[in-house]
Amino acid sequence: MGCEWSSYLCPGGTKEEDTPLVKQHAPVVTFSTQYHLGEKLGEGAFSIVRKATHIATGKVYAAKCLNLKHISAQEMQNIEREVCILKQLQHPNVISCKAYFLEVHAGYIVTDLMEGGDLFDRIVEKSVYTEKEAKDVMHAIVDAVAYCHAKHIVHRDLKPENILLSSHEDDALIKIADFGLAKDDEYLSTMCGSPAYVAPEVLSGDKGLYDKEVDIWSIGVITYALLCGYLPFYDDNPSVMFKKIKRGAFEFDAPHWDHVSVQAKSFVKMMLVVDPKQRYVVALDDDDQHDVPSASADDLLKHPWIQTANDATVPLSGAISGLRQLTKRHSLKSAAKAVQSTLHMKKLMSAH
After folding, report:
1. Residue 323, domain CATH
2. Residues 209, 73 share a domain
3. For position 74, which CATH number holds?
4. According to the annotation, is 64 in a ligand binding site?
5. Which residue among 11, 85, 279, 289 has the highest number of C-beta atoms inside a 10 angstrom radius?
């Protein structure tokens, strides 16, 4: 008899017509049959992130545990879209989805465990930080974004908090995370992204369409901040900041930029261009060009700053001190958001 039936019901030589046909059902696969939950890593409005150990292999991952009772249909659609996108992406610098479980009252998204914190948090821990290190970081980020764009996926929310490190070791992998706002690049028109890193066309207000170039702008803002320690268009007043972004005027102020190479400044200038069609288009190396639309000969990955050996080892001490201020400001805002999320969750729970 076939292997789907219990073997003890099919002894050798027994006639098939004499054997009772009792089908053996496969065991139900749930999150708890595959993973053990560990310590809490973080918390959101309707989710808790914990360490999760894969029972069969002993490997440790991160599991976002979703409380489905408090998730709207729209939020659920966003979650499933992000999972769908992550399952399409297999790149060393993009966080990967290992498993997704949707059960009666809970959902679980299992991803790479990123224990090294976010990009800026990691840099401010350093005693010495150089332009070469900034270039190496940006090379990894640009390569990952190029890969996403080749698959027609636009992240739309690139910022340091969404660029994570796998560990605190020097050889830790950098991975882009949080694809909750990402979409297919067949023209996008919704307002999204984090204000300081958002592209001017997103702020245009005319419901115009935008494309991959929004990610290029965000890469430019991140690179600028990595090299000097402050954001090119930031203002405490959001409306003033938006005006600065739409105008696109920025400077390489002394003394912060005195020890930064001309090539690095060129790299930044070619991305922070208000007209999206005049920005660099991220493209993969020659062997993968068939996967992407035609791009200019000098795209980001081929820019001299990225391609050439960079021996700029002068410490960017001003950048570190500036980034410390940026991370401190972000931590205060995150704390405020955490309080708001907790109050929101308590309100939801009291309503049920």
Report:
1. 1.10.510.10
2. no
3. 3.30.200.20
4. yes
5. 279
